[in-house]
Specification:
Oligomer: single chain
Structural class: mainly alpha
Distance between the termini: 47 Å
Shape: globular
Number of strands: 0
Length: 122
């Protein structure tokens, strides 16, 4: 089997898992993608984070479009979060290279734990 085919199968599976989670829960695909991109696709942590963002963007746009089409998206309620998210995304993108991998791992782990806690208690 060629090296390209060996890479595409786990990559497609990781993308499928992220899309499923993103569509089903309205987010969280990146939490699936980062570990899968590292373990199954052999990417380093920084590459996995960056690729996850690039992959999640169109998945989120598609999910938001479906939620809007089905009448489950209040655009006006989402706008303030979008504005803040754009600013936060710009800042995060600029400081990404300056943060050590250890702190990226810790921050990502805390984010996963926070998501789990709020899901279980909310």
């Amino acid at each position: 089997m060629s090296e390209t085919k060996q890479f595409w199968a786990p990559a497609a599976a990781a993308g499928g898992a992220a899309g499923l989670v993103n569509g089903f829960f309205g987010g969280g695909g990146g939490m699936i993608l980062v570990p899968l991109l590292m373990s199954r696709c052999g990417l380093e942590r920084r590459q996995a984070f960056a690729c996850s963002v690039a992959i999640i963007f169109p998945l989120c746009a598609l999910s938001a479009g479906i939620y809007f089409w089905k009448g489950n998206l209040d655009v006006m309620a989402a706008l303030p979060y979008l504005a803040g998210g754009l600013v936060g995304g710009c800042i995060g993108g600029k400081i990404f290279k300056k943060v050590s991998v250890l702190w990226l791992k810790r921050a990502f782990s805390l984010l996963i734990l926070y998501g789990a806690w709020t899901s279980l208690t909310g």
